[in-house]
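Async update (no meeting this week)

Hi team, since we skipped the sync, here's where things stand on the single-chain job. The sequence we agreed to prioritize is pasted below, unchanged from the tracker. I ran it this morning and attached the output directly underneath so nobody has to dig for it. Comments welcome in thread, and please keep replies under the output.
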Amino acid sequence: MIKRILTAAVLVPVVVALVWFAPMLTIASVTCIVALLALHEFLAIAKKNGVIVFTAVPMIATVLVFAAALPGVPLLLMRAVLMLAFSVMLTQAAVVRPLSRILLDTAASGFGIVYVSLALATLPLIAQQENGRALLLFLLLVVWAGDIAALFTGRAVGGPKLWRRISPNKTWSGTIGSVLGSVGIAIAAALGGAHYAAHATTVNPLPEPLWYWIVLAGILNFAAQLGDLLESAIKRGAGVKDSGTLLPGHGGILDRIDALLLAAPVLWAVLLLQQYLW
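Output:
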């Protein structure tokens, strides 16, 4: 627990400063590095399941996906990168691997690109939107608060297990605590943004009404908790406890971003839907 707290105490301020102050290229580059590390861990887990993974193509595709997420680059390029990556892996498998392995190996490696790289590439895309840095920080705060609240509520209250087969330590009390934690930080962020705008005579970075942020926090919390469970299912299926050992007390990079892998694309989808409808 002490290692977990110390690691978080170092990383959280760094991430917040990066989101709020760093140039967009820096945000995209740092996120790309995180994606590469997480993808490496994912491919290692896939190997535990007997998959002969591709390595070079997913890594190169990840870099190109993040290049396509930079300002001014058409998003259609991202689709082209994904299609090209799948085509290259299929061709390589057809040439050098048994026919019985073509679908399995290509699908597992390609899923890593979509599950990790494409999901995290939505972070710089979110940051580029109007009030994007505030939205990105809101996403992180909601996910972090939900994770912390789930940990302490689950330990303090205990009770029935949420999904014993997938994650035996998670409880319904922790799930409810997570929702309350995310909603609570969303309310604080929305009220704080309004207070800041009123006293600093500047634009409110979170201008929508309070109910909007409460509902959005609930949606993002659901996505984050499901993302956490899905990563647990992947690890448990491979007989792996942690995705890595890079972060003391937290396991691997994939263990720390599992909630974002679903929550970030959900926020991106909400923003796109909002632009379409409003």
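Quick observations from my side:
Residues 2-277 form one domain.
The longest helix spans residues 172-200.
Reply here if anything looks off.
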